[in-house]
Input
Amino acid sequence: MRDRLAGLGFTQEAIPAQVAKNLIVECRIPPRTAWRLASELSLDVAAHQYNAVTGDPRAGMRGTRIWEYEQWPERGVRPTIAALRVLAQVYGTGWKCLLGLRDLEQLPAKDLAEYHAEADPVAVAAAEPHVPPPARAVARVEARPDEGEFGAGALDDAILLTRTNVDDVQLDDLWSDLDFLGGAYTRTTPDSILAQLAVIEERTTALLKGRQRPKQTQDLLLIGAKSSAMMAWIAGDLGRYRLARELNSAAWLYTQYADDFLARRWVRTSQARVAFWAGNGIESAKLAADALSYHVGGRLTDAPLILAEARGWSSVQAERQVLDAIARWTVVENPDLGAGGEDRFFNITKDRRHYMAGTSLLSVGQASAALREFTTAREAFEKMSLEDRWEAMDPMIRIDTGRAHLRLDDLEGAAAQVEPLLNAGVGKQPDMVRAMLKLMATELSGPRWRSATTARNLAEALLAAHASARP
Output
């Protein structure tokens, strides 16, 4: 192709753009891959030149990361606009040329607005790697008698703001790892996710001890807040409530310095969850209500927080507050809302939302309404792909559906719900599953069912499952 283009009179500088165009149009190769191939660069060489353009050979770009950028949006990692600008310099083009239609359809609104705000790109010559100028001594000019010393050295001091120990690649890596772990939690052991989040938190803390530009510092604070809140959530699932409270305190401190409403929602969501399962229902309700005061648009929806508020009040049988919260949730509930996107860890899925509504209604004596919510939760759970299911939901829905049957004087219906679970073996489960096993066993041992052989046998089996389910 290069020979044919040269024969048609294209200059050496113009040929790469024509090659890229033909690869995109004729061969249907995605733009970022097409431009790299047109520039005759391997993944590793492209990464090396990326680091050279940034002026820091240790900037951290790797060939594998460029490959991940090229796989997006079908898989891989979404490149930041900053990363696209550097790649465009490496390939000798404009950054907008590195995005195709499918890319644009998946861009966040902020990035798409930036795309439209700039003029259409033109191909440019690849920038030579930036070579920092040699260090030089800063000599102060002797002040003239009428100048004085006020402001001397101010420019040198301001230049300190440009020094940084972090770059966009490192930040992109940290955010991508957080997003991945948030999505993996439903299908990976909690201890494994907790350990990987701890690595992210340690990397973030180490970077914060150095110097960054103000926006980079805020990004690191947000990463610290989110990773700590996620760790607190998981520590609570493991029954380690003291650690969970400490992690949430750290997360809240990060948010205060980051001064970001979305981060405050992350942390309040985690705090409300931990408080409820630690036995502090009223505190949980108040934390959830406070989170709702931070308005962030559609990124972190109101539904999980309203339900957390209802669940908190249900622990003290505050029927009026529970029913008020459920009514507010009904207004905002979107049955088609999934738990995708960057905040999927906190934006719980439909089965979990209806389960939370059911448990709150059950606690204030609304057994029939609760049973309807549990039925919806079960249907939603079974429609989900195995990859998106949180497996703890199956025993939790079964147990609380059984409890709803008990409230309706239907012992056989209760047994039909939990016996398949007990026969299959509960296995290792989060702390809240163990709590619900024990609660149902306690209810079956109460005066209403004490004389029934089926109830006694079921209670014994539930207590045995409770003992074996420790995570």
Q: What stands out?
A: Residues 122-145 have pLDDT under 50 and may be disordered. The radius of gyration is 28 Å. Residues 313 and 320 are 9 Å apart (CA to CA). The chain has 23 helices and no strands.
